[in-house]
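note to self: dont lose this again. the chain is below, predicted strucutre after it. 259 aa total, dont forget to put it in the shared folder this time
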Amino acid sequence: MINDIRQIAVKAGEAILQTYDDPAEVETKEDDSPLTQADRAAHNCIVGALAQLTPDIPVLSEESEGISTEERLGWKRFWLVDPLDGTKEFIKKTGQFTVNIALIENGEPTIGVVLAPASGLEYFAARGDGAFKRLGQAEPVAIRVSEANKTKLRIVASRDHAGPKVAAMLENLPNAELVSMGSSLKFCLVAEGAADLYPRFVPTMEWDTGAAQCILEEAGGAVCTLDGYRLAYGRKDLRNPSIIAAGHPTIDWKSLLPG
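---
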């Protein structure tokens, strides 16, 4: 199904770009995050397409409504969608926003597609088949995490949400290189070997990480909670704990944690 999902992401990206130059009214959701017409358009596009492609698989999107916790917890297999990850980046027109679509099976992401519509940059993976990157109309190329220079680690962080703990980590790594990036593209930089670690100590939601986790894991990396366990899905609380997205397995990221 991976190619079908890639095409759905492209269609959602096209819907987003229709309002890129004029995002119209920006609303504020209950959690103070922004919501635009593009979020809704991409959500409707993806949910409708998935309902046709796999009518037996439920969909959980950031913009979904009316799905109870009890209903969710009964799902063994579901689509996990962030129709517009990085709405703030979309509003600021940085281009660093993505469409994220993941298939979750028994708590694990087994398909992941991350598309940056503004640049035509795409990352995708299916469990057991490796991870790939494609730019524009070029052929996809396989990607892999890279071995780290432990004396000069490359740390990728959010433009808007890095937080004080990341700053504390960097203080302990005076030779580290900070790579700034928005949305789930941060995970993808680690997956393609352009960064070594992405620490995230401030909240994310399941739909922020599912697709990119599949890509990073297929590229040889990992997404873990701070106690070293693999980040799992389909939990009662949709909010993720603090996480580390790590590249090459030789990186002793636990020794780098602040405090």
